[in-house]
Design goal:
Length: about 200
């Protein structure tokens, strides 16, 4: 992301900010950081996490109806939230409304077409068509940057616990059996797409 757009001294929107994990990171250099989250419990957690950082505010809201004024944001960060391709057009219209000229938005999502985790993701979410998702973003003027990262855990039981959070029970068993059949261990290669667009 930093190679494509700086957020230093700019206004950052973390859309679908969850418990606010990324907000302090952006606040290191941004002039202002706004987290927007639809789930009340997570809004509370994010506010608690960032209560000592005056340049951060956390608002209850959705991607389809952002609680922000027009042309008020310079950088948008969305990670595994709402924008999963076809069907997210209302949120894209809201991005068009709230970003300023010269803004950049980033949407980070799983790449179901690559990596071990991508294969697992395909098992857990078979209705998500990776090719259709890619066509959707390209049609709306976004650029894909593939990134290969990894999960790394202290123990295999930690990995197993996270797999059971990420997937339904049946898929989790299939994933864990596949992991063991391929040598097990505490690391898994993980491909993501970083979709970006400039205004």
């Amino acid at each position: 992301m930093a190679a494509k757009a700086s957020w230093a001294d700019r206004v950052v929107l973390d859309l679908g900010c969850g418990s606010g994990y990324h907000l302090p990171y952006f606040a290191r250099t941004a002039s202002r950081v706004v987290g927007v989250e639809p789930h009340p419990r997570l809004v509370t957690l994010a506010r608690r996490r960032t209560s000592a950082l005056s340049q951060i505010s956390v608002l209850a809201g959705t991607a389809q109806q952002l609680p922000l004024p027009d042309a008020s944001v310079d950088v948008v960060h969305v990670r595994w939230a709402y924008f999963f391709g076809p069907g997210s057009e209302p949120g894209l219209r809201e991005l068009d409304r709230v970003v300023r000229r010269g803004a950049t938005a980033f949407v980070i999502d799983n790449d179901a077409s690559a990596s071990t985790f991508g294969r697992w993701f395909g098992w857990g979410y078979p209705k998500i068509d990776a090719a259709a998702v890619e066509r959707f973003w390209a049609r709306h003027g976004w650029t894909r940057t593939p990134v290969t990262t990894r999960w790394s855990f202290g123990t295999e039981s930690d990995l197993e616990s996270v797999v059971r959070i990420e997937f339904d029970p049946e898929t989790a068993e299939k994933v864990l059996a596949d992991h063991r059949a391929n040598g097990g261990g505490t690391e898994v290669d993980y491909a993501v797409n970083v979709w970006s667009r400039d205004w």
